[in-house]
Amino acid sequence: MTWHKKDKVNMTKLRLLRIFVQFIMFLLMNLSFFLIGATWLVLPVVMPKSIFTTSEGAFDLLQRMLTTAIIPLVPLAFFFIIGAVFGRMFCSWGCPFGLFQDIIGFLTSKINKYEPTKDSNDSYRQIGEFITGGTVLVAVVIGIGVGLGDTEQIRASFGVFSEQPWTALSPATFLFTVIPLLFYWGGIESFFNLNTLGQIDIFFWIRFIIFAGGLILIIYVPRGWCRWFCPVGIIMGQIGKNSMIGVGRNITKCTHCGICEDVCPMGVRILSHPPEKVRSEHCTLCLDCVAACPDDAMEIKYL
């Protein structure tokens, strides 16, 4: 497989553009950190609500509405409308946790990566499906209890999971909420004090272990968390398979060189899909395949 200088330049430009867009999106979602007030936004990204954020992830809001016995029409509308048009594009171009994964991937680019087979890639995704389904089920059970008037008992039984069952454990919550709050409250200094480590809540360490495990995963598997564990990616992937915007191949130009598959950060086997459009739950429309194709065979497709 021959790489041309032009293709490498195209890839570099695209990835720099994507990082720039992701960074701008991250700033817009965290304007409150800079003491700038803004209206709450709901987006199909991994962004837990905190005192710093001006937006909230749709799946985080969905959990909160279900556990308070409210039909989650708003987050569902964002999932279906955005997913039907753009597919999983926000995963690559707007998600703060996606930006974190891309930065880690760049910093550890010299480390040998593990690329699972197509079957393994799809099989591991079932873990995320289990997380998503289990979270919704638990949230519904909590919401039923709250709706029946057993709020106090429900809150006591489920504890920190009573409002947002999955968000409480999500590594994104640890990264974007727990760590910033430690700095904000001045607790980061005492955290490194050996005399106070034993006094830290056990739930903090559970979150820390999940975050550390996720970090190790994305070091060795590009976008590993997006591929297999993220509930937002699971939902948007199912909806986005038939989105209005996607990528496809021009069969008159395609030489089946396989470079498009090599550069795909989600491990999509592009050549196994119909040339009209790649219909994969994993595709995030990052456009790496479009930029890298030496024959300009990969194209953005509409409808």
Percent strand: 5-15%
**Total strands:** 4
Rg computed from alpha carbons, rounded to a whole number of angstroms: 20 Å
Describe the strand arrangement of the main beta sheet, using strand numbers.
1-2
End-to-end distance, in Å?
Answer: 31 Å
How many domain modules?
1
Unreliable runs: none
Order of helices and strands: HEEHHHHHHHHHHHHEHHE
Helix content: 55-70%
What do the pLDDT scores average to? 88
Shape: globular
**Major sheet:** 2 strands, parallel
Number of helices: 15
Question: Structural class, from helix and strand content?
Answer: mainly alpha
Report what the structure shows.
By secondary structure, this protein is mostly helical. The chain has one domain. Helices cover 56% and strands 5% of the residues. The chain has 15 helices and four strands. The chain has a two-stranded parallel ribbon with strand order 1-2. A two-stranded antiparallel sheet has the order 3-4. Helix 1 packs across helix 5. The longest helix is centred in the middle third of the chain and has 30 residues. It is globular, with a radius of gyration of 20 Å.
Short description:
The protein has 303 residues and is mainly α.
Key structural traits:
5% strand; mainly alpha; two-stranded antiparallel sheet; 56% helix; 4 strands; two-stranded parallel sheet; 303 residues
Helices and strands in order:
Layout: H1 5-29, E1 41-43, E2 55-57, H2 58-67, H3 73-86, H4 89-93, H5 96-107, H6 118-147, H7 151-158, H8 171-184, H9 188-191, H10 194-197, H11 202-220, H12 224-228, H13 231-240, E3 245-249, H14 259-263, H15 288-292, E4 298-302
Helix pairs in contact: 1-5, 2-3, 2-6, 3-13, 6-7, 6-13, 8-11
